Fold this protein.
Amino acid sequence: MIAIIDYGVGNLFSVEKAFVKLGADVIVTSDAEEIAKADKIVLPGVGAFGDCMQNLIESGLIPTILDAVATGKPFLGICVGLQILFEGSEESPGIAGLGIIKGMVKKIYAPALKIPHMGWNSLELAAASPLFHSLPKSPYVYFVHSYYAVPEDPSVITAITEYGQQVTAAVAQKNIQATQFHPEKSGDIGLLILKNFIKSV
């Protein structure tokens, strides 16, 4: 069972639809008990960092998320669901993230390019990751963001992309995998990434 956390933000139903297409047993839920019972957890997120954190606080689900991470359940963050795993963001000064991964989220500096970064970009796979099993070299995926994570420990970065500068596209730490891009909007490549998450132990 895969639980997609519903905390009032995020592209929940397109994420659910992608997992259903792959034959996964999936539930969209804001119920702490359902999340605690799930075998795997997905934390989506769209919009501003501060709004996502405020919604998460109001949902009362932060202890449930921290427990799931601590017990080693496979955990997937998507877009702002990646960013809020970090300690904070330039987008929302003074608002703390979950702090599960050390580092900050910073604004993309690309004066010659349009911000937000919106559209298809290729990945450079920077480290081995179960999410990227059987992916072709330099696969294209879909991004919508103005900010990107800068981990304190660069070894957690599993993929980067170029958009006027080097941008973190995916990270991994222990049982956590997270993508800045949207696998649910990334066609066959995205479905393969989600399939790899379903198969992860």
Summary: The longest strand covers residues 166-173. The mean pLDDT is 96.
